[in-house]
Amino acid sequence: VQLVESGGGLVQSGGSLRLSCTASGFTFSNYAMRWYRLAPGKEREWVAFISAGGGTNYADSVKGRFTISRDNTKNALYLQMNSLKSEDTAVYYCYGNGNWGRGTQVTVSS
């Protein structure tokens, strides 16, 4: 099982980024997936959830700004992040089937 995140980077406050997570080694379409983030000096925070059927849920801190989606034909998970704030700066991880990716750094400059 492998999860590989990409799409992180440096963006100005108010900007947007789209994160991707490519899955392999398991039947991606059968599993719920999640995004988490870890900021310096803080505990890991759950960000967003998508069920195998496409139902979604979000942390209050990102609701209305972030959108989680999936493309089962590509074994891919996405996180569209809009109206980014400095407090969104963190390493973002995808999680599914009991496995974690290595993360992708998102830095939002104010």
Note the overall shape.
globular
In total, the number of strands is: 11
**Mean pLDDT across all residues, rounded?**
97
In the predicted model, the low-confidence regions spanning at least 5 consecutive residues are none
Largest sheet: 7 strands, mixed
Class by helix and strand content? mainly beta
Q: In oligomeric terms, what are we looking at?
A: single chain
Alpha carbon gap, first and last residue: 37 Å
Helices, by number, come to 0
Secondary-structure element series:
EEEEEEEEEEE
Rg over alpha carbons: 13 Å
Helical proportion, percent range: under 10%
Query: Which strand-content bin applies to the residues?
Result: over 45%
Task: Describe the secondary structure blueprint for this structure.
Blueprint: E1 2-6, E2 9-12, E3 17-24, E4 33-38, E5 45-50, E6 56-58, E7 66-71, E8 76-81, E9 90-96, E10 99-100, E11 104-109
Parallel strand pairs: 2-11
Antiparallel strand pairs: 1-3, 3-8, 4-5, 4-9, 5-6, 7-8, 9-10, 9-11
Keywords:
single chain; mainly beta; 110 residues; seven-stranded mixed beta sheet; 54% strand; globular; four-stranded antiparallel beta sheet
What can you see in these coordinates?
This protein is an all-beta fold and 110 residues long. Helices cover 0% and strands 54% of the residues. It has strands at 2-6, 9-12, 17-24, 33-38, 45-50, 56-58, 66-71, 76-81, 90-96, 99-100, 104-109. Strand 4 and strand 5 form a beta hairpin. It is globular, with a radius of gyration of 13 Å. The N and C termini lie far apart (37 Å).
